[in-house]
Design brief:
The complex is a heterodimer of chains A (346) and B (333). Chain A is of the alpha/beta class and 346 residues long. Chain A has 14 helices and twelve strands. In chain A, the strands form two sheets. Chain A has an eight-stranded mixed β-sheet with strand order 6-7-8-3-9-10-12-11, sandwiched between helices. A four-stranded antiparallel β-sheet of chain A has the order 2-1-4-5. Chain B is of the alpha/beta class and 333 residues long. Chain B has a single domain, classed as Rossmann fold (3-Layer(aba) Sandwich). In chain B, the strands form two sheets. Chain B has an eight-stranded mixed β-sheet with strand order 6-7-8-3-9-10-12-11, sandwiched between helices. A four-stranded antiparallel β-sheet of chain B has the order 2-1-4-5. In chain B, a hairpin with a 2-residue loop joins strand 4 and strand 5. Chain B is globular and about 65 Å long. Classes of the chains: A alpha/beta (346), B alpha/beta (333).
């Protein structure tokens, strides 16, 4: 049993303009001690997936259906009491903006101790010691002095270290990091990513790393999920996703970023504009922007296809490719005859 | 030539910046004020037809440099030359602004929400009286929109009806309206999604070819800068520390700060990323209100000596077309 099992998660925001389906049938497993990267652009549903796990959605947001199991316990519909025990204790989250995540009117020490005392039996002195210990762990110099300072006395990188210390103070099994380095400069970002890697080795927690930056994923992750328009396009080990992308969107993303050995020639952008979540197409959400789109892509969303043991992709192009290479059976064993025929554009 | 001037096959210098300083007075209450040295004595040339990438971390003065170059601020000291002519008087500035424009970072706040796209793009034309009839104005606006890949039916719409990438196209059309030959692009793609970034980057390159534009491309994303730039300049705490051909600066950085900066770039390739040895920087960027004496980078530099604390290293040409400001350059390279 995986530590965290997300199954067919649907989360929507009910706005005046209509239902915005931010997360549309997301399923994945997270094992102990693994680093899972979730990549996607704005509006892909990567953050909403994380907030659904923590059940910290904004007022209009609601988990419509699906299941989230932590250590075998169902969290969807479990109620606030259960979630209070889970949040911070078992699953912690850090956010993008370290500037607004801390309360400016309390000292760093008070905020750290509050988190510790809320979740453990430690008294004030013990909580102080634990907080100092955590600050040391995240490489904050002279932690005793820093405990008495206010957030404004910390730089962005230091605040993010404090947030990590706070999130890890109760030794959670899972740390969700929602774009933790996006607001930071590259040299500071590199430090934070290295720190997360080190601590992960020391404490052994699992990390869900949410980011738009494929560079960040490449530094840190064991497994990668690529999201587009609320659905998972592709999922697999880091090497599979980077070196054998099997969804047209992932391929497009990889082509469109400048790399170390790009030679100044034109990039290959993904054409078109991002999807309007209020107005989703019938078939594959990426089809309107996809150069390889076939007839079936516009009609029917592709379910996940097993590419190999370490890799799944929801893209019809794989079926076409498999047919050309004569290994259709491995790939489409689970499909019905009509589905197969449709997939081949017959 | 000791102050960053050079010629390159792309053409003669279109912009020359000499010893530019831009200080801001920060009030200390009744104690008076002290200067924040946002840009502290930088000199460089931008050659016709090239893209000069300007990189550095937040607070290093790269945006201020771009803005004071365009005379959006009144520079504290230093000289700016446009095609060899020094910009001094108000009429020089007015003339200069027809030739030098700007694209801003945030496509959301840089467009007036109450103006239609046509009026946003047409405003520079109005300001500089660049048409003789309404038809001509409309004609010009539609041509500009076509250049940046917008449809004519977008003309009557408002900025909020567009996605980030399209808004940035509007911003670029506005910058092109006066038919400039030099554009300061201040982080023009950093607010955009990855898949849209590439569209806009390509458009910059195409427009450059088509209209023979020269860019100062300010950004913090080193992979993007390396991709688009002919040369790269690196700033740290108001100073320029290195300048050279993009490829050379990226693959063989000379200044200890550039080395650290480039080693920290998150490369989107797991094998490369895991093999990379990062040069860790200790400490934080000092406040520009309280900059260290001598070399601005010395407080975080592993090679710093007493000389670095005493003297500001000269920004000088160390190889043909390669400039660097470091006392210990020969020892560490």
């Amino acid at each position: 049993m995986a530590l965290l099992e997300v199954r067919d998660l649907h989360t929507s925001f009910f706005t005046d303009a209509g239902e915005v389906r931010a997360v549309n049938g997301v399923s994945f497993d997270l094992d102990h001690g693994k680093v899972l990267g979730i990549v996607g652009e704005s509006g892909s549903g990567k953050s909403v997936t994380a907030y659904s796990i923590m059940q910290i959605l904004a007022g209009t947001g609601k988990i419509v259906s699906g299941s989230i199991k932590y250590d075998g316990r169902e969290l969807v519909g479990a109620g606030e009491d259960v979630m209070k025990d889970i949040r911070g204790n078992k699953i912690s989250i850090i956010f993008q903006d370290p500037m607004t995540s801390l309360n400016p009117t309390y000292t760093i020490g008070k905020q750290l101790m509050e988190a510790i005392m809320l979740h453990t039996d430690r008294n004030k002195d013990q909580a102080w010691d634990r907080a100092v210990e955590m600050l040391k762990l995240v490489n904050v110099n002279s932690p005793e002095k820093r405990m008495k300072q206010y957030p404004y006395e910390f730089s962005g990188g230091m605040r993010q270290r404090v947030m990590i210390a706070m999130a890890l103070a109760c030794e959670p099994d899972i740390l969700i990091a929602d774009e933790p380095t996006t607001a930071l400069d590259v040299t500071i970002q590199a430090g934070i990513l290295e720190l997360m890697k080190d601590i992960q080795k020391k404490m052994g927690m699992a990390i869900i790393m949410i980011t738009h930056d494929l560079g960040v994923v490449a530094q840190l992750c064991d497994e990668v999920i690529v999201m587009y328009a609320g659905s998972i396009c592709e999922q697999g080990t880091e090497n599979e996703i980077f070196y054998n992308p099997c969804h047209e969107y992932t391929k497009g993303l990889m082509r469109s970023i400048p790399t170390v050995d790009s030679d100044g020639s034109r990039l290959e952008p993904i054409t078109g504009t991002p999807i309007d979540l209020l107005n989703m197409p019938e078939g594959c959400a990426f089809a309107p922007r996809c150069d390889a789109a076939m007839k079936i892509c516009l009609k029917k969303k592709c379910e996940r296809i097993q590419i190999n043991d370490m890799h799944q992709a929801a893209c019809w192009v794989n079926v076409k490719k498999a047919a050309e290479e004569g290994r259709l059976d491995d790939l489409t064993a689970a499909m019905s005859e009509t589905e197969r025929e449709e997939a081949l554009d017959k | 030539m000791s102050d960053g001037t050079m010629t390159k096959q792309t053409g003669q210098p279109i912009i020359s910046v000499k010893h530019l300083k831009q200080y801001f007075d920060i009030s200390d209450g009744f104690l008076g004020s002290r200067p924040l040295k946002a840009v502290d004595d930088i000199s460089f040339d931008i050659n016709e037809g090239e893209t000069l990438g300007l990189v550095g971390e937040s607070g290093c003065g790269k945006t201020t440099a771009g803005r004071s170059l365009l005379q959006l601020y009144k520079p504290t000291a230093g000289e700016i030359f446009y095609r060899g002519k020094k910009i001094v008087t108000k009429s020089d500035i007015a003339e200069f602004r027809k030739k030098a424009t700007m694209v801003f970072q945030d496509p959301y706040s840089s467009l007036d929400p109450r103006m239609t796209v046509a009026d946003i793009i047409g405003e520079p034309l109005d300001v500089h009286h660049m048409y003789s009839s309404k038809e001509e104005r409309r004609e010009k606006i539609l041509t500009l929109m076509e250049h940046v890949g917008l449809n004519s039916e977008h003309a009557a719409r408002y900025a909020h009806e567009f996605s980030g990438g399209q808004r940035q196209r509007v911003g670029i059309a506005r910058a092109l309206a006066v038919d400039p030959d030099f554009i300061v692009c201040d982080e023009p793609v950093s607010a955009l999604d990855v898949s849209i970034q590439a569209q806009v980057i390509n458009m910059f390159a195409e427009l450059q070819e088509k209209m023979n534009l020269t860019y100062l491309f300010i950004a913090h994303d080193l992979l993007v800068v390396r991709h688009i730039s002919d040369r790269i300049a690196v700033m740290y705490l108001g100073h320029m520390v290195e300048l050279g051909k993009a490829e050379e600066v990226y693959s063989k950085p000379m200044h200890p700060y550039t080395k650290a900066l480039i080693s920290a770039v998150p490369v989107p390739d797991p094998k490369v990323a895991k093999a990379n040895k990062r040069i860790a920087l200790t400490g934080e960027i000092p406040s520009p209100l309280d900059a260290p004496s001598g070399c601005p980078f010395r407080t975080r530099c592993q090679y710093a000596t007493e000389q670095c604390a005493a003297e500001v290293p000269e920004f000088k040409e160390v190889e043909s077309g390669r400039f660097c400001a470091c006392h210990r350059l020969s020892e560490i390279n």
